[in-house]
Write a structure and sequence with these properties.
The chain is mostly helical. The chain is about 50% helix and about 5% strand. The chain contains 3 helices and 2 strands. It has a two-stranded antiparallel sheet.
């Protein structure tokens, strides 16, 4: 099963949240994820995990993929200052592979 981004955004009512609150949430969640990854012993980075029935990936690969994912969205926002992706009319480019 693939993550349904548009459904998740609608059901969580992001469009009703103040934009600064969403940015702060994103910032703090990502800071915490960085803290967690930095605290991982190097030996666990080779551990494999399975997400949603997909092929196993290492924690290191998962962290790197998430960073690419975040960079993709950050580039979208920086390319369109003031653009709020939670409102109608926002078009999202496909995620990089």
């Amino acid at each position: 099963m693939r993550f349904q981004e548009k459904y998740a955004a609608l059901t969580q009512a992001y469009a009703a949240e103040p934009w600064p609150d969403l940015v702060n949430l994103w910032l703090l969640l990502n800071r915490h994820l960085l803290h967690v990854v930095k605290a991982m012993p190097a030996a666990v980075l080779s551990h494999e995990c399975v997400i949603g029935g997909r092929p196993a990936v290492t924690l290191e690969a998962l962290a790197a993929d998430y960073l690419r994912h975040v960079d993709h969205h950050l580039a979208q926002l920086l390319a369109n200052p003031g653009t709020d992706p939670t409102f109608p009319g926002f078009t999202e480019e496909p995620h990089p592979p």
